[in-house]
Amino acid sequence: MENNPSSSKSDRKMIERNRRNQMKALFSKLNSVVPHQSSRNLLQEAISRPDLIDEGTNYIKSLQIKLEKMKEKRSNLLESKMSENASMSMGLKSPQFKIQQMGSVLEVVLVTGLDFQFMFNETIRVLQEEGSDVVNASYTVIENEVFHTIHCQVGESANATLRISEKLKKFLYH
């Protein structure tokens, strides 16, 4: 019977030693992942375990706050994007155009929503009414926008470009 109590005592010592080694490993792991806020030089003075736990707790709380702020920002951005897409699909985004003359060549870039294909046809009609010859027309679709590029031959006068620009402004913005 005397053998049993000493065996039990050595088992308890072994269990306690394993527990302390496990705690030491866990504190070491915590120390390696928590950025230290204290001004101590960690190479000269080791941080105490209560201070390490306190810093770990503060760090986790700051990460939770950052996460909540990022979730809120993400939500706001998604709402903004959804409302922008809704307004574009409802046709609320106004078309835009840019005209550039290079000698006798006129380049018209028209940007519209997907539901405004008729504006391309009207732009071609205005160009032809003003006596220009359409040489090339192409388009590119990016998300909910259509970029039309029209190249046409016009006279050298800036008057034609001005008249075309004025007619397109009246048609597109009124």
Describe the structure.
Helix content is 58%, strand content 20%. The chain is built from 4 helices and 4 strands, in the order H-H-E-E-H-E-E-H. A 4-stranded antiparallel β-sheet has the order 1-2-4-3, covered by helices on one side. Helix 3 runs antiparallel to helix 4 (158-173). The longest helix is centred in the middle third of the chain and has 41 residues, at 49-89.
How are the SSEs placed, and which strands pair?
Layout: H1 3-33, H2 49-89, E1 96-102, E2 105-113, H3 117-129, E3 133-142, E4 145-153, H4 158-173
Antiparallel strand pairs: 1-2, 2-4, 3-4
Mean pLDDT across all amino acids: 81
Helix/strand class? alpha+beta
Largest sheet data: 4 strands, antiparallel
Widest β-sheet, arrangement of strands: 1-2-4-3
